[in-house]
Amino acid sequence: MSADRINLLRTKVFDKSKWMQLPRDVVIGHDVIEQIPAVCEDLALGDSVLIVSGGQTRDIAGKKVEALLSGSYDVATFAANVGDPLEAIRRAEAAAAEAGFVIGVGGGRVIDTAKIASYNTDRHFISVPTAASHDGIASSRASVPTPEGNVSLAAEPPVAVVADTAIIASAPHRLLASGCADIIANYTAILDWELSHRLRGEPLSEYALTLSRMTAEILFKNADLIKPHSEKSAWIVTKALVSSGVAMSIAGSSRPGSGGEHKFSHALEQLAPGKGLHGEKCGIGAIITMYLHGGDWKAIRGSLRKIGAPTTPAEIGVDDETAVAALLAAKTIRPERFTILDMGLTSESARDLVKMLYRE
Ligand SMILES: NC(=O)C1=CN([C@@H]2O[C@H](COP(=O)(O)OP(=O)(O)OC[C@H]3O[C@@H](n4cnc5c(N)ncnc54)[C@H](OP(=O)(O)O)[C@@H]3O)[C@@H](O)[C@H]2O)C=CC1
Ligand SMILES: O=C(CO)COP(=O)(O)O
Ligand SMILES: [Zn+2]
């Protein structure tokens, strides 16, 4: 299904996609989930709420949020993990239309479902990440898988982000490492954006680009501090993910955080569904695109290793031939987004790159 087809679902008569919308309250810290009632009261969002969560994340945090709000609000719940993602978005929209505001409690898929449903029904949205696994936590974009590839849509930016570091630090370390890789991928996303600016005249936002790069640099510098099940690590990474999401909101597109390495990840999602987390695939892709840009790809690989993120397709259960196919297919996903993977990659060169960069 194409982005246009998804847009048909929208009930809005005006388009906010060119607005620069940023979160108003960002609350990160130990046990801050307890502050959700105060955040909702402060923002005066209405008296009924839809809480969107996933199969595991409802037990991890969704039920807690339901209990915290049930005395003061009419609470409805929605399971975002059931069925086809587009169908889930449609059902979430119908549920959101019956509520005053929406809270998404979960990983990236849950948060994207909640923020699209909020956007399409013109409801405020609160983001409650249970894992620091992706930089959609605070952004005004949603990434939706379709049979033709992943599409990036304008979505409701959270009016508040409530990120409890106790919950985030308890999540499997793999999720945190994946969030770090999603941020490290900003380095190559920016290089692709600059390339497209120079070659194709694509507009650049200096502010968005600088914020995105600075976020990656801070994380890179702090890679030694990223440890499993540490609240300090959860705090460092969550702040970086919020910052990266703000860069996307400033740009009004995911360009500051999504280039060729993301297109490789989206192609892999089609060719090897269910293999690897989003950020893991982007990190693996960034090694190749950084090499192609002539940058320090070994430093990218070194920081991914230090953090505990995979650096080869084999580590996420993807064979080399599939990785080659994904590199070649990447340019067919969002062809309007020009990247280094559009610069003459051939089957032979893709095979050589996979052999060389994923073997050392
Ligand atoms: N909007 C944007 O700008 C962006 C969007 N994305 C999107 O986000 C998605 C990737 O997010 P990601 O979080 O990696 O993947 P998922 O949302 O698929 O979550 C991965 C798994 O982790 C589980 N999980 C989440 N939190 C915890 C926890 N605390 N403890 C144990 N398990 C937990 C989820 O459970 P459950 O079954 O409950 O869901 C799920 O099974 C992709 O769809 C991607 O396209 C990524 C980057 C940016
Ligand atoms: O994942 C993203 C940024 O990290 C954005 O997603 P898209 O690649 O779908 O635009
Ligand atoms: Zn990403």
Task: Characterise the protein shown here.
It is a single chain. Mean pLDDT is 94; it is low at 1-5. The protein is globular. It has 15 helices and 8 strands. Strand 6 (141-144) and strand 7 form a beta hairpin. The chain is of the alpha/beta class. A 6-stranded parallel beta sheet has the order 1-8-5-4-2-3. Strands 6-7 form a two-stranded antiparallel sheet. The chain has 2 domains: 3-170, 3-Layer(aba) Sandwich (Rossmann fold), CATH 3.40.50.1970; 173-357, Dehydroquinate synthase-like - alpha domain (Dehydroquinate synthase-like, alpha domain, Up-down Bundle), CATH 1.20.1090.10. It binds NADPH dihydro-nicotinamide-adenine-dinucleotide phosphate (NDP), 1,3-dihydroxyacetonephosphate and zinc ion (ZN). 1,3-dihydroxyacetonephosphate binds at residues 135, 141, 143, 150, 152, 182, 254, 257-258, 262. Belongs to the glycerol-1-phosphate dehydrogenase family. Zn(2+) binds at residues 182, 262, 278.
Brief overview:
This protein has 360 residues and is α/β, with parallel strands linked by helices. It has helices spanning 3-7, 36-43, 57-69, 85-97, 108-121, 165-170, 173-184, 186-200, 206-221, 231-251, 260-271, 278-292, 297-307, 320-329, 347-357, and strands at 25-29, 48-53, 74-79, 101-106, 124-129, 141-144, 151-154, 160-164.
Q: Which strand order spans the largest sheet, edge to edge or round the barrel?
A: 1-8-5-4-2-3
CATH superfamily of the largest domain: Dehydroquinate synthase-like - alpha domain
Average per-residue pLDDT, rounded, comes to 94
General form: globular
How many discrete structural domains? 2
Low-confidence stretches: 1-5
Strand content: 5-15%
Radius of gyration, Cα only, in angstroms?
A: 19 Å
The name CATH uses for the topology of the largest domain is Dehydroquinate synthase-like, alpha domain
**CATH architectural designation of the largest domain:** Up-down Bundle
